[in-house]
From TrEMBL:
The record marks 296, 352, 375 as: Electron transfer via tryptophanyl radical. The keyword Flavoprotein applies. Keywords: Chromophore, FAD, Flavoprotein, Lyase. The keyword Flavoprotein applies. This is Deoxyribodipyrimidine photo-lyase.
Length: 459
DNA sequence: AGTCCGTTCGA
DNA sequence: CGAACGGAC
C-alpha cells in the first residue's frame, strides 16, 4: 500500500540526492511535496505559522495528486533538479518577493521551462507586482501617499475566476501525511490552539462574512480588538489562498468609507512589498540607521524582560492579552501589534529585530515585508515611519480601544473575574493584583522618559 | 497609526 | 474644573 509523505528539509541540505527521497521511495511513500523552509526561523518548534503553511501546502499538494514539488524560499536554480528527483512535473513556488532575490520569478520560469517542467506560482500575490509601480522618472516611490496614487493609476487585471486554478481540499483529508523531519517542526501545534481554516473556500467564506457584516464599520471598528472588525484576510493573502484582485474587484463598486479604508490597507501591503523589492536588505536592517546609534539593552535582565514580553507577562493587561493572543492563535490584532511593538522597543529598550523575529515565528500571516516594515514603522527607522518619540501608552491604549476590558479578559484567565474597565489597572484593585498575574515589570512613565533620553543622546 | 503638558475656553 | 487645543518630544 502506498502512503503519502510531506517532506520537510532544512535549507542547508542538498536536496537533489537527499537520502530521505530514496527512503520515501523505498517505503512506497508517494511524495506529495517538498517544502524548504528558510523564511522562518528553523529552531522553533510548534509554530502555528508553519502549521498553517503546512496545511495549506499539503492541501495544494493533495489537490495536485502528488505531481507537485513545493520549494519555498529555495534558490531557484536547483528547482529543475529537484523536480526530477521527486518525479514531479508541477512545481509550486512562492511568488512573494523576499530577500532572496528580486526578479527571481522570471529566472525560475525560464529554468523550469527549459527543463520541461510546468510551473505554478501561488503565495503572496499582489494586485501590482512589486517593482512595477514607478515614478515617471523610473524611481521607486519612497512615500506611501504618492505610491498609493501611482498604484491606483497603474491599475490591475480582473481577478481570475474563483476555482479556475487549484481546487483546494479539506485539510482533514490529509491527516495521514507524516512529516519526515526529525524535529517535525511545523507539523506540531501546541494543544488547544485554534488555527484558521486553510484554502480558497475558507478565504472566500471569511471575506464575504467580513464584507457583509463589518466592512461598512471598518473605519470605526478596525482598531477595536474586542470587536470582529477586521477581515482576517492576511493569512490567505500571505499564502496565496486568495488574490488581492479578488478583494479589490469586490470593493470597486462600494462607496463606503470602510471600503476606501480597506483598499488603502491593501495598498500598504503592496507598498511594503515594493519597498522590499527595491531594498531587500531592509527586511532586517533599519532603513533609517539613526535608530542604530541609540543605546539598546542587553544582558540577563534584558533577556528576562524579553521573555516576559514574549510570554505575555509584563503586568500590563492590554500588552499581555495581545502577546497571548499571538501564542494562542498565531494571529494578533493590528492595534496590539503596534502597542506591543512600541512596548518592546520603547519600554523595554530592545531592538525592533528581536520583536520582528518573534512575530515571524508565530504569526500565521507572518510576512517579511509587512511584518518587518511594520516593526520599522513603530521603531521610527522606516523610510516613512512614525517618529521615534511617538510612544504608545500601554494603559491608555487599552482603555481607549478595549473600553469594557472584554479583550483582556478573553486572553488573560487570571483577570477573568475582574469586571469592567478596571481590568486594565489590576494594581489598583482592592486586594492587589490577582493571584498569578504579575506586577508591571517596568514603570511606563519612567521608561518613556528613558527612551526619550536615549533618543536625545543618540550619537 | 501617540502622548504629555501647559494654556485657554466655556459651563 | 473639565474639555479642547497647540506645541514639544
Amino acid at each position: 500500500m502506498t502512503s503519502t509523505s510531506l517532506l520537510w528539509f532544512r535549507r542547508d541540505l542538498r536536496l537533489g540526492d537527499h537520502p530521505a527521497l530514496a527512503a520515501a521511495a523505498d517505503h512506497n511513500h508517494r511524495v506529495l511535496g517538498v517544502f524548504v523552509a528558510d523564511d522562518v526561523p528553523l529552531d522553533a518548534s510548534g509554530s502555528p505559522r508553519r502549521a498553517v503553511l503546512a496545511r495549506t501546502l499539503a492541501a495544494l499538494a493533495q489537490a495536485m495528486d502528488g505531481r507537485l514539488l513545493i520549494a519555498h524560499g529555495r534558490p531557484r536554480s536547483v528547482l529543475p533538479r529537484l523536480a526530477r528527483a521527486v518525479d514531479a512535473d508541477v512545481v509550486h513556488v512562492s511568488a512573494d518577493y523576499g530577500p532572496y532575490g528580486r526578479r527571481r520569478d522570471e529566472q525560475v520560469q525560464r529554468a523550469l521551462q527549459d527543463a520541461g517542467v510546468e510551473w505554478v506560482a501561488t503565495g503572496s500575490p499582489y494586485a501590482v507586482a512589486p517593482g512595477r509601480v514607478r515614478k515617471s522618472n523610473g524611481e521607486r516611490y519612497a512615500v506611501f501617499t504618492p505610491f498609493y496614487r501611482g498604484w491606483t493609476d497603474h491599475g490591475w487585471r480582473k481577478p481570475a475566476r474563483s476555482g479556475s486554478g487549484v481546487d483546494w481540499v479539506d485539510p482533514g483529508e490529509v491527516d495521514g501525511i507524516t512529516a519526515h523531519d526529525p524535529q517535525e517542526y511545523a507539523r506540531t501545534v501546541p494543544a488547544g490552539m485554534s488555527l484558521p481554516e486553510v484554502g480558497e473556500q475558507a478565504a472566500l467564506d471569511g471575506w464575504r462574512t467580513f464584507r457583509d457584516e463589518a466592512l461598512d464599520d471598518y473605519d470605526g471598528d478596525r482598531d477595536r480588538p474586542d470587536r470582529p472588525g477586521t477581515s482576517h484576510m492576511s493569512v490567505y493573502l500571505k499564502w496565496g489562498s486568495i488574490h488581492p484582485r479578488t478583494l479589490l474587484a469586490d470593493l470597486a463598486g462600494r462607496r463606503s468609507t470602510g471600503a476606501a479604508s480597506y483598499r488603502r490597507e491593501l495598498a500598504w501591503r503592496e507598498f511594503y512589498a515594493d519597498s522590499v523589492f527595491h531594498l531587500p536588505e531592509s527586511v532586517w536592517t533599519s532603513v533609517d540607521p539613526v535608530i542604530d546609534r541609540m543605546a539598546w539593552d542587553s544582558g540577563q535582565p534584558a533577556e528576562e524582560r524579553f521573555e516576559a514580553w514574549r510570554a505575555g507577562r509584563t503586568g500590563y493587561p492590554f500588552i499581555d492579552a495581545g502577546m497571548r493572543q499571538l501564542l494562542a492563535e498565531g494571529w494578533m490584532h493590528n492595534r496590539l501589534r503596534m502597542a506591543t511593538a512600541s512596548f518592546l522597543i520603547k519600554d523595554l529598550h530592545l531592538p525592533w529585530q528581536r520583536g520582528a523575529e518573534h512575530f515571524l515565528e508565530h504569526l500565521v500571516d507572518g510576512d517579511y515585508a509587512s511584518n518587518n516594515h511594520g516593526w520599522q514603522w513603530v521603531a521610527g527607522s522606516g523610510a516613512q515611519a512614525a517618529p521615534f518619540f511617538r510612544i504608545f501608552n500601554p494603559l491608555t491604549q487599552g482603555e481607549k480601544f478595549d473600553p469594557s476590558g472584554d479583550f483582556v479578559r478573553r486572553y488573560i484567565p487570571e483577570l477573568r473575574d475582574v469586571p469592567g474597565r478596571k481590568v486594565h489597572r489590576p494594581w489598583e484593585l482592592d486586594g492587589g493584583v490577582p493571584a498569578g498575574y504579575p506586577e508591571p515589570i517596568v514603570d511606563h512613565a519612567d521608561e518613556r522618559a528613558e527612551a526619550l533620553r536615549r533618543w536625545q543622546q543618540r550619537g
